[in-house]
Amino acid sequence: MIPGTMMHDYPLTLTAVFERAGTFFGRNDIVTRALDGSIHRYVYADYQSRVHQLSNALRRLGVESGDRVATLCWNHYRHYEAYAAVPAVGAILHTLNLRLHADDLAYIADHAGDSVVIVDQSLLPVLDQFKSKIAKLRGVIVISDGEPIPDGYHDYEALLAAESNEFDAPTIDENQGAAMCYTSGTTGRPKGVIYSHRSTVLHTLAACMTDALGICENDRILVVVPMFHANAWGIPYCAAMTGASVIFPERDLRPEPLLDLMVSERITLAAGVPTIWNAILAALDENPGRWDLSALRMTVVGGSAAPPAMIDGFERRHGVHVLQAWGMTETNPLGTLCRVKRHMSDWSDQERLNVRSKAGYAVPFVDTRHVDDSENVLDWDGQSLGELEVRGPWVAGRYYNDDEQKDRFTPDGWFKTGDIASIDAEGYVQIADRSKDVIKSGGEWISSVELENALMAHPKILEAAVFAGVHPKWDERPIAAVVLKGDETVTKQELTAYLEPKFAKFWLPDEFLFLDELPKTSVGKFKKSALREKYGDILS
Amino acid sequence: MIPGTMMHDYPLTLTAVFERAGTFFGRNDIVTRALDGSIHRYVYADYQSRVHQLSNALRRLGVESGDRVATLCWNHYRHYEAYAAVPAVGAILHTLNLRLHADDLAYIADHAGDSVVIVDQSLLPVLDQFKSKIAKLRGVIVISDGEPIPDGYHDYEALLAAESNEFDAPTIDENQGAAMCYTSGTTGRPKGVIYSHRSTVLHTLAACMTDALGICENDRILVVVPMFHANAWGIPYCAAMTGASVIFPERDLRPEPLLDLMVSERITLAAGVPTIWNAILAALDENPGRWDLSALRMTVVGGSAAPPAMIDGFERRHGVHVLQAWGMTETNPLGTLCRVKRHMSDWSDQERLNVRSKAGYAVPFVDTRHVDDSENVLDWDGQSLGELEVRGPWVAGRYYNDDEQKDRFTPDGWFKTGDIASIDAEGYVQIADRSKDVIKSGGEWISSVELENALMAHPKILEAAVFAGVHPKWDERPIAAVVLKGDETVTKQELTAYLEPKFAKFWLPDEFLFLDELPKTSVGKFKKSALREKYGDILS
After folding, report:
1. Up-side HSE of residue B332: CA atoms within 13 Å toward CB?
2. Which residues fall within 8 angstroms of residue A10, CB to CB, at 6 or more apart?
3. Residue A193: which of A73, A101, A327, A381 has the closest Cα?
4. Residue A489 DSSP one-character state
5. Which residues does B195 contact at the CB level (< 8 Å), separation at least 6?
6. Which of A365, B7, B85, B385 is least enclosed by beta carbons within 10 angstroms?
7. Which site among A9, A14, A193, A209 would you substitute to test the B interface, given the most B Cβ atoms closer than 10 Å to its Cβ?
8. So what's the pLDDT on residue B433?
9. What residues contact A380, with CB distance under 8 A and at least 6 apart?
């Protein structure tokens, strides 16, 4: 082999990403809106200074290369500071999912080997429930806005105040761990992955491509997705690299305050899960003309499938473009994005909507394939359903310290996503179901996602989740749980008649449950396991 | 160190870049206009097929990993096929600059160790002049459109026709050489660099960022810059990765045919050196309303500094946005890009033009600094002039087999560009001169670029180059060589009076030469060495 003559020893590090924000975009602002509506605003020059102080403080506390520093925080600027400062000292930022049960948090923080936790003062009661289970824990840093700090804990602001705003950055190997996330663990125990500097840098470059999220210096990004959810889908890194402004809503994710913030901060890009966007769409529909979203170039929806009715509703009724993306904690998370291709530009709105409702085709350097139960690779015919497998430089090659999960990685180097999908000739992936949510009726697969998409297009339905009920004859049959809008009413007969023209007869749900709300996971997906547990035997 | 758990062994290869075009964007077209005006058009699906055939053919000819395969070709689709097929077999694509002197070509092709040359039938006479000097040469492949192929040479189309369009790609190490370029060697002998798969992939990702070239699937890119000029600035790779259409003008770079092509192919992005754009601007000015360039989102100008008058003329008179970029063969080539920052959006047109006339600030993962003669790093004060140094994953760390050039690389890991520049507090680099073109009058530096920019803003001047004349008292004094528009006339006194308010008195040229044309280098830059040679002693 004849190697290139370029600087191959120049490592791809997050330090370069974050330093760039301060060096070139020092005047661009970072905004946090607190629960009481007050605004904290500063610029990347301030941010850089404080990141350096935090890095120095971590060093003074004895944080060394490879140490895991956890955060238990809402979405705000100091959490963003930790994103930069922890990997800058060579340590690993571990964003804890504050909505998990204390038992899961205990398992996760202990399994990760967290030695320091940075926690919001408001979340100390959560930390108190599992702190004693973290074997290696030796320091807690509390972020407070003047509220008293318990004895024995460090005060975030006091630590920073004692440090220089110049930081002597260590040399970092690009394969070194930079950040760590655990899956929310809806099946089995949570599994952790460690993103390296390299993988996150490459993910950031890909995400900033015009055909991906197109993040640029002119953007003002509302980070609705929690910063513990696959590190807010990597958006904070994209923002720092390009100098885009980030706007953090802290913990208030109600639709109206979010919409107010989108107007007042002239948001250009906002990212979150479908359940959030569904609520926002309902608020927009109920208050025509109240919010001016003309600055918004796009919303990014991921985490679970965006129903076509939502994509269409945003676009047609409110002029808001919705981009669907698919990914997982194990893919850092960007895997596919649903851009409509050039040759489809003269297709009808309905045809384009059909495309846009898919997960999309793979971003550069992510490979996709789907396989049957015997690991035979299936054709890209848009029909055959199989388990989606992916590989690429920001896809997990293994779980952290978890040999039991080895079967999620194929011998030829692919990660088994657990999603059941088809892929069409253009490369568009369509997710039919999480494999754990698949409904198998008399040996035939029924896609809960397709049924949900159809139900959510019904004018009276706000949310719908379809899950498997145990059935004496067919093994499993679909049950639909729906939440109606406002004080609407509808009958099972009406909904069955509504679905009938769209699906084969055996796909139609055997039962409809009318609920006040649907259970959701810690990251805002429908929690079908809870529905199955409570209602799964009503057919038997 | 605790490594990440991601797939670090997934290599960054050009194979993935080029395969992506065929896999996802098979319907998007690739266009070549021949010298006779005829159009060749096919799509990425055809391209992928033929690239596979060419890879198979190269293998059959015995091309192995690390072999250098040269091209001596104009800008056309078959050259683009070689871009993909050569690195796909693990070999190194060496694009020869067909405008160089045969002696230089002989040195370059032999020094590179080229074993196969792919040559346009029309360029066989050029190859014949130096072919015998290439020690390792063992095969010549001729690209012809039916013209007879000399005995002993391979016919490109016949080779492809004999091969399968399925290719079994080898495993490639990302640091492996993929492409090779030599500097045009205006000073000293030519120096070669080998781009690795990794360096070109990273360059491609950075170039596709919205704030860089923003190349996307909707683009139709006119590749005016020669494909041997730092591999057309990497644009072919960006196009393949995103599915953008590329339009090749083959060898006809006259302004009117280029403008016709921009209209007929609805070009969205075009890239070339300032001398080309200057001629295009003149054609636009002379023919108001003749060409509809409404599809054009941007022109990218690089290779040498774009005069402010040109940037302004395009924008104000023709609504065409000009983006200035700086780079070198040694930087793959993208180093800096001149985007106007968000906080400058309300500046006056003149203030923004002043910014846009600079080389710009560094793209992500390129570091910039400038140093004085003793290698002291200078402040970013927008004033201090020093040699620009850069580093980054797509910057050369050494020249290929050329120990004599070691002093171009600093002990602390930077590449010395040879450009004299200032850097301001916002990170904008402004190139004052190539170090070899600097004029040093009585110990003071005079920027030839600034004088040229001022002269080219004069309504009667088409082109201007300022160079150093030997002077008995001041060592060197500036001489301006100008080409007037059409049949304009102007005197030395008029030009001196025009410059006087803009510069210190000692900057004003001692002499003005009125020439019919300016000598240019093989890549279209002003060839000041030729001017110095011919006119350098007229002051002594």
Report:
1. 36
2. B365, B391, B392, B393, B395, B413
3. A327
4. -
5. A4, A6, B177, B178, B179, B180, B181, B203, B231, B332, B394
6. B385
7. A209
8. 87
9. A423, A424, A425, A427
A55 close to A90: Cβ distance less than 8 angstroms = no
Q: Is the ipTM of this complex over 0.90?
A: yes
Residue B142, classed as helix, strand or coil, is strand
| Residues A287-293, mean pLDDT to the nearest whole number | 96
Of the partner residues B176, B201, B342, the one whose CB lies closest to the CB of residue A217: B342
CB contact under 8 A, A210 and B206: no
Which amino acid, one-letter code, is at B89? V
Tokens of B408: 């171009």
Is residue B475 over pLDDT 80? yes
Task: Tell me the domain boundaries of chain B.
Answer: 14-252, 438-535
What per-residue confidence (pLDDT) applies to B185?
Answer: 60
A456 Cα to chain B: minimum distance (Å): 30
Residue of B136, B171, B286, B440 with catalytic role = B440
Query: Which residues in chain A are closer than 8 Å to B193, comparing Cβ atoms?
Result: 4-6
CATH architecture of A438-535: 2-Layer Sandwich (3.30)
Contact A216 B216 (CB under 8 A): no
From CA B457, how far away is CA B309, in angstroms rounded?
A: 5
Answering whether pTM is above 0.90, one says: yes
In eight-state DSSP terms, residue B228 is T
> Which residues 220-259 of B are in CB contact (within 8 Å) with A?
241-243
| Cβ–Cβ < 8 Å for A177, A66 | yes
Cβ-Cβ contacts under 8 Å, A197 against chain B: 4
pLDDT category of residue A304 using cuts at 50, 70 and 90: confident
Which of A1, A7, A416 should be substituted to probe chain B, the one whose Cβ sees the most B Cβ atoms within 10 Å? A7
A positions 166-195 inside 8 Å of B (CB): 173, 175-178, 192-195
Options A23, A440, A444, A502, the catalytic residue: A440
Best of B6, B391, B403 to mutate (most A CBs within 10 Å, chain A): B6
Do A477 and A468 form a contact (C-beta atoms < 8 A)? yes
Interface of B with A in 51-70 (CB under 8 A): 65-66
Say whether A445 is catalytic. Answer: yes
The terminus-to-terminus CA distance of chain A in angstroms comes to 65
Tell me what pLDDT residue B187 has.
61
B507, B213 contact by CB (below 8 A): no
Kindly report the backbone phi and psi dihedral angles of residue B269, in degrees, each rounded to the nearest multiple of 5, phi listed first.
-150, 135
Contact B20 A242 (CB under 8 A): no
- Give the per-residue pLDDT at A124: 97
- Smallest Cα–Cα separation from B278: which of B89, B71, B499, B485? B485
| Residue B303 pLDDT grade (very low, low, confident, very high; cuts 50, 70, 90) | confident
Res A187: pLDDT: 61
Contact B66 A1 (CB under 8 A): yes
Separation of CA B375 from chain center: 28
What number is the average pLDDT over the span B457-470? Answer: 93
| Type of residue found at B119 | V
Is the Cβ–Cβ distance between A457 and A487 less than 8 Å?
no
Check if A183 is active-site: yes
Q: What is the pairing mode between strands A114-120 and A68-72?
A: parallel
Give contacts of A216 with chain B, Cβ < 8 Å.
209-211
Question: CB under 8 Å to A484, separation ≥6 — which residues?
Answer: A460, A461, A462, A490, A514
Chain B residues in contact with A173 (beta carbon < 8 A):
1, 3
In this complex, the residue of A28, A243, A392 whose CB is nearest that of residue B7 is A392
**At residue A361, what are phi and psi to the nearest 5 degrees?**
-105, 165
CATH of B14-252, one of 1.20.1440.130, 3.40.50.12780, 1.20.140.10, 3.10.20.70: 3.40.50.12780
Residue A64 among the catalytic residues? no
